[in-house]
Write a sequence for this structure.
């Protein structure tokens, strides 16, 4: 089982390396009054995923959020069929993510995607650092109830993300070129063996649809 897991991640890694596209956005849109910065650390690391509901999103930079840890919590999520990612305050931890610039008109779409109106996530303004030394304020989302800290390897089943969700995160992390050490940490989280709902797989397209056909 363990060997199988490692092999699957290796395949993800190889296919990411071969399909990776570098899309650095040079337009100076930060600070424009019609756009805002969004810090994504979960499924919205993947361009294809964020563009489903937020077509205006443009990749800006990777960034790190200090004094938070990445965690997962059960929110009875039938979309992904597993736990959802969140950030929890913790000194000396960091969460890496992607900064996207979005049109202000996408705020309601992003809020809806994060279930703000139904109390799943809340909006946070966080201060993040980019590798070129800038500190920027960005909008992000946090599950309204902080999950208790457990060792990653002891994550209870109901707090494990689905295979699809984790694969979206890891593929997104490769696409954005998050630090390898952090990607290595991401893949230590156990997954629950489930795929996302079939319409979600369809929205994500290749390779997620093919993986569903194989099972
Ligand atoms: C998830 O559903 C279960 C069973 O319906 C319920 O007891 C639990 O409170 C729900 N959890 C959340 C986070 O909504
Ligand atoms: C985040 O910052 C924006 C812009 O300054 C502000 O309008 C908004 O109320 C802030 N949101 C939160 C949750 O602090």
């Amino acid at each position: 089982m363990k060997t199988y897991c490692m092999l699957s991640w290796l395949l993800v890694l190889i296919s990411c390396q071969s399909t990776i596209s570098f899309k650095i956005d040079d337009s100076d849109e930060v600070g424009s009054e019609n756009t805002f910065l969004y810090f994504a650390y979960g499924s919205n690391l993947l361009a294809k995923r964020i563009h489903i509901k937020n077509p205006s999103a443009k990749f800006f930079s990777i960034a790190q959020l200090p004094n938070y840890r990445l965690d997962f919590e059960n929110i009875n999520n039938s979309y992904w069929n597993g736990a959802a990612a969140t950030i929890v305050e913790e000194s000396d931890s960091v969460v890496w993510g992607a900064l996207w610039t979005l049109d202000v008109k996408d705020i309601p779409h992003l809020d809806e995607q994060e279930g703000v109106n139904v109390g799943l996530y809340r909006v946070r303004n966080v201060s993040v650092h980019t590798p070129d030394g800038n500190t920027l304020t960005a909008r992000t989302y946090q599950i309204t109830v902080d999950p208790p800290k457990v060792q990653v390897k002891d994550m209870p089943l109901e707090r494990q993300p689905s295979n699809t969700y984790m694969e979206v995160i890891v593929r997104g992390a490769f696409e954005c070129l998050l630090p390898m050490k952090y990607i290595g940490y991401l893949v230590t989280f156990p997954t629950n063996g489930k795929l996302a709902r079939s319409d979600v797989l369809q929205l994500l397209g290749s390779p997620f649809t093919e993986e569903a056909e194989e099972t």
